[in-house]
Structure formats: C-alpha cells, structure tokens
Amino acid sequence: MTTSDTIYALSSGSLPAGVAIIRISGPRSAEIGRRLTDAPLQPRLAHLRSIRHPNTAEVLDDALVIWFPAPRSFTGEDVLELHCHGGRAVVAALFDALSVFENVRPAEAGEFTRRAFDAGRLDLTEVEGLADLIASETETQRRQALRQMGGGLSEIYDGWRSDLLRARALIEAELDFADEDDVPGSVSDVVWADVCTLASLIEIHLSQSRVAERLRRGIQIVLAGAPNAGKSSLMNALARRDVAIVTEEAGTTRDVLEVHLDLHGLPVTLVDTAGIREAEGLVEREGIRRAREKMRQADLILWLMPSDEMHSASPDDLLNEPDVPAVWVLRSKSDLASPAMTQDEPGTVSVSTRTHNGLEGLIGRLGKYAADHIALSEDPLATRERHRTHLEDCLSALKRSFDSDSKPLELRAEDLRLAAESLGRISGRIDVEDMLDVIFGEFCIGK
C-alpha cells in the first residue's frame, strides 16, 4: 500500500444500478478531473460534464463530477467523485480510462478510510463506528454506530486520558520540584481521590458495554432438539423465507445454518443445527458436534419437542452441562397433537409452522427477550472486545496505582502512565500499527 499513489474504486453498490459513484483520492485527482472533463471544476459543486477518455477523447458517459480539494475531504487528500450511470460497461470504461494515468491504481479494501485515519480525519473508534454503520441491519445498530462514528466514544476516552495526564503532571511536579513554593506539598488528596472516581466510572462503563457488544453482534438464538423436531421449518417460518431444506428424512441438517432477523429494530441471529442423537455417520457426528458448540455460544436455546411424540428427546442433559445459556422448551407441530397434548406445560410454548398457531406469540416473546438483553442507552458504549481489553488494562493499572500507600510515588506514577497509554490505544493515539490491517480489512473495496 503506497500512500503517494492516487487510488480509485467504485464506492456505491453492486452493478448494474441507476447511479454508480467512482471515488478517486490522491495527488493526481485534480489532473484527472481536468483531463477527463476538459473543463475547470469549482470545489464542492456538482458539475454535469461529458467524461472523455484521456487518450482518444471518446465520450464515455455524461456524469456529475464533484471536486473536493485537500484537506476538506473524506480522506484529507484531493478527492474527485464521478457520479455516472451504473451500467457495468460504463464503469469498466471509466476504470480503463483511469488506468492510463501513472501512479494511479485501484484501491485496496478500506484504503480510503485508512487514509482518512492517517490524515487525522477519523480516529480508530470513529473508523470502527463507520464500519458498524455500513454493516448495520437494524435501527438500534444504526443509532449506536452513528453515535460512535460521531466521536462520542472518543470524547469519553480522551477526557479520561486528559484527567490521567493531569494527575501524572501533578505527581511529577511534586517529584521534580518539591522545593518550589507554587507546587503543592502533597498531591495525594487531589490525585488519588480523582483516580478512584475514574476507576469507578470505567467499571460502570465496562458493565454497560458488555451488553452493548451484544447489540453490535446481535442476540444468538439456537434451534436445537432431536432430528425431525421441526427446527428447519421453524427457522423458515421465523425468517419468512426458505432458508433450510425441510424433508421427512431425519438428519437432513448436517451443518449450521444462520439467518439474521430484525425483531422490532433489534438484531437477532437465528441458528439452525443438526438434530441431537447417537449418530453413526462421520458427517452427522461432525454436525452434532458443531450443534453442541453453537449451543454453548448461544444467548438463548429454543429446544423443540414435537407435540405428537410423547417420548421425544428432552433438554435435561443439556441443562446439566456447565455454562449453558437460557433454554426455552417449544412444543412444535402442535397441529398434529390432540387437544389435551397441546396444553402448554409451565415454561413451554406450543407452535405450529403449518397453521402458524403460536408463531406471533413466540416472535413477541423473542422480541421482548432481545430488548431485555440489549443495551438501548443513548450514551456511547464500547462495542468491541478490543475496547474492553484496553479498558480492563487501564482499570487494572489504576487499581495498582492506589492499591497501596506504601508504594513509591514513582511507581504509582508509572501505573498512571500505563493506564493513560491503554486509553490511547483505543482511539489509536499511540502504538496501534499492528492492528490497523485487521481493522481496515473489515471494509469493502471503495471505502
């Protein structure tokens, strides 16, 4: 990745489309704009221009052209945008025209955002918020991502880091200039009370953010039970489309199937798994192993027991396993059972995917479960394991700093330095080169 190159990519959706947006960023953007349009461009104004090939002068398309001079652009560099017609041939012709310029090349995944980060236009939490906004599937995910992209999380962490830098400055002033009249004789009452308060704030923030992380990835709900219990039929009914193959043959689901749902604006990932039984085949045994692994990772398990089978497999063994999440028992295929058998036992729900009996009630209960277990706070919260790891490192260093009054002041000041450094790593202020490729690799080409 060479930052001196000028890069280009399709920044809009897949083709064909009504409009395609080609973004160009780098030092040759202005020259490219002049040669493609053969006309001057005013900054940040939309111009309707004929786009011509730089070698043949052939008209390739009529497009809206917008010119963003540095540094007032997304990347902080000169940026040119071509809003052309979204046919594959049109875009291919424009890409061919761009390829004739020296030191101009297609962009790599996330390279536009990486350049915005390098130019100081975004910090890492804002970059991650942008990635989450692009990937958001529900209203609550959109809101949270927008708050993070707007710098709400950075503002909190930068404020805490500034408090720690001030505390360190007071301590170092006492160490270096203890004989000076304008330096307090002891900073303990001032600094350590503030450090304790900050540690409490971070603990509260961490506890709230564990739930916010769940909002970002969605509630994981696993459908489990014996073969032919109706798991795949229920997944199709909840997803309102054919996701899984449904047959009378037992054991047709061999792998894990996932579908993302939007329940009242909340994200839910529904997982269909292989039927649990003593399997002989190698493929089915692997499917059952994956099913059990997914159940251990789930937030909620829906255990299906067909209503027409008196001795169907129960989840008793599952409930006895360690670290098992919540389990709801569903009496599936309620349309095949006698009226006496469809009476819900305590803690069970009867559903039928054929008559849709009980489905709306189940969807309502699942929506309430998601709302009860997902943070809907308007405050920016940490949403990634990376944030939580650095916050926990910061908190540990803070607790070490005020854990013992007998600890030398120099060592306590070092603990504060480590705490501030951990906060700086979240927003990318210091030493984050090793993680940049991973973070920017989440973006698609063109962003």
Describe the structure.
The chain is built from 14 helices and 12 strands. The protein has 3 domains: 6-121, Gyrase A, domain 2; 126-214 and 381-428, Four Helix Bundle (Hemerythrin (Met), subunit A) (Up-down Bundle); 219-373, Rossmann fold (3-Layer(aba) Sandwich), CATH 3.40.50. The protein is of the alpha/beta class and 447 residues long. Strands 3-4-5-2-1-6 form a 6-stranded mixed sheet. Strands 8-9-7-10-11-12 form a 6-stranded mixed sheet, with helices on both faces. The two termini are 15 Å apart. One of its GO terms (molecular function) is GTP binding. InterPro entries: G_TrmE (IPR031168), GTP-bd (IPR006073), GTP-bd_TrmE_N (IPR018948), GTPase_MnmE (IPR004520), MnmE_dom2 (IPR027368), MnmE_helical (IPR025867), P-loop_NTPase (IPR027417), Small_GTP-bd (IPR005225). Residues 218-371 form the TrmE-type G domain. Belongs to the TRAFAC class TrmE-Era-EngA-EngB-Septin-like GTPase superfamily. TrmE GTPase family.
